[in-house]
Design goal:
Rossmann fold, single chain, seven-stranded mixed β-sheet, 34% helix, alpha/beta, 7 helices
């Protein structure tokens, strides 16, 4: 599929330092704020991606993650059919539309404000009925399946590991059923043993699988995105 040249990996929005941040700002502690909420507010205040997302009209800072992934792997072709699993609040849907995807379908358990460039479902994508609806709405075999889903963590390593693997496997199995040959899958994972297992599984179906951590991912976060390209076809 031919497509226009890509820009370089997105640079962190300006802030005057190598990290893309300016001098850190601290909030005056509110009596009603817990330490964790206070820390979250300070991160938001000092996060250049949050400000840049607001300036550009993106619904979340996560939009920059997909921009970087697309710049690195050339995922979004002109007129592409794309499915976004766990699409709330819609930042990735916006990027898909901006970068030329033709038919965009998203699904989430949460309600998502409508977008003119996408069809959005509310439901559980693991439900066979929802999967059938997604396949119908995308209008043919998909070029790209995205999953930015993450499970609620418990703090128990083994339980969290099972939940992470379960989501990756569910996204992968769905992708294998709807992707066209040459298509791509992006799935969120977390650095650790589960990443190696998931990569090994995907390599049986895709020509290339690599973990990428966009600069827009918070430095302290263990998240990484498994980018699988060159789908070999559902017969494998």
């Amino acid at each position: 599929m031919s497509e226009p040249p890509r820009k370089r990996m997105v640079r962190p929005p300006g802030g005057g330092r190598d990290s893309g941040r300016g001098l850190g700002q601290r909030l005056k502690t509110a009596k009603s704020s817990t330490p964790s909420s206070q820390a979250w507010l300070e991160r938001q205040l000092n996060d250049p991606y949050v400000a840049e997302a607001k300036a550009r009209g993106y619904r979340s800072r996560a939009a920059f993650k997909l921009i970087e992934l697309d710049d690195a792997a050339r995922l979004i072709g002109r007129g592409a059919r794309a499915i976004d699993l766990g699409c709330a609040p819609g930042g990735w849907l916006q990027v898909l539309g901006e970068r030329g995807a033709g038919q965009v379908v998203g699904i989430d358990l949460l309600s998502v404000e409508p977008l003119a460039s996408a069809t959005i479902l509310k439901g559980d994508f693991t439900d066979p009925a929802c999967q059938a609806q997604l396949a119908e709405l995308v209008g043919g075999l998909a070029d790209l399946v995205l999953s930015d889903m993450a499970p609620n963590t418990t703090g128990h390593r083994q339980t969290d590991h099972i939940r992470i693997i379960g989501l990756i496997e569910a996204a992968a199995e769905f992708a294998l059923s709807v992707l066209k040959p040459g298509g791509a899958l992006v799935a969120k994972a977390f650095q650790g043993g589960e990443t190696a297992e998931a990569i090994a599984h995907l390599k049986r179906h895709f020509d290339r699988v690599r973990p990428l951590k966009p600069k827009a991912s918070r430095a302290e976060s263990a998240e990484v995105y498994l980018v699988a390209t060159g789908f070999r076809g559902s017969s494998l």
